[in-house]
Amino acid sequence: MSSKIYVLDGALLECNQGFVPAKLLVTENQKVKIQGKFKATDMDVQVPATFGQCKLKPTSGGYLPCMPALQRWTKTTKTSSLGGSKKFLYEDSECMCATGGKVTIMQPMQINSAGSVKEEFKEIAMTIPGAMLGNDKAPKVVESYWMDENEEQRINEMEYGEVATMYVRTENVDPGQSITVTINESKNNKIDGEKTKLKYSGTVKEDGVAKLSSVETNKDWNK
Fold first, then answer.
1. In terms of pTM, does the model score above 0.70?
2. Which residues of 64-80 are buried (b: 16+ CB within 10 A; e: fewer)?
3. What is the DSSP letter of 41?
């Protein structure tokens, strides 16, 4: 599963020529959310609270106030589900301010709850096949995560021999509908010597959450 973390609305930014962190305001995406927050794009450059003062603007009485002029972000996704040229930000994305400062992500706001199995899995598709991207009424998966064997807490990884269960939280999906998530092996190895993909299925409950199949790994996972 991909270890990349997305940047969400309200993410905390740092400028190497500023004095204080500032929050990013997402305005260029009002459709795609993760964990209830809009995903930031490479065209989101508004920082309302600013970085305090600017080290590149010294005066005899101190530094002048920061006036952010963020340029388009780099180190982003290659594509996005928004269409056009907008791309989503990762936690290691960065951009330059027109004044000369370099802006990086301090806190992306996404909780890494999707989990991983020893980095064996690739990322999970976040939309149900056939859904209309960008349509707020379309059926979609808005969150995926793993629970431990006792289903008491979320986990980010599991050791060989442990059991975990995948859950997905949906929107605009009728209770009782079946949902299937396909996961690819990340290094093109054969899982149990046979498969390159695993499918997990479950039924959507009244709260929009579906409990999918459990998985247990062992040291012969890849042959």
1. no
2. eebebebeebeebbeeb
3. B
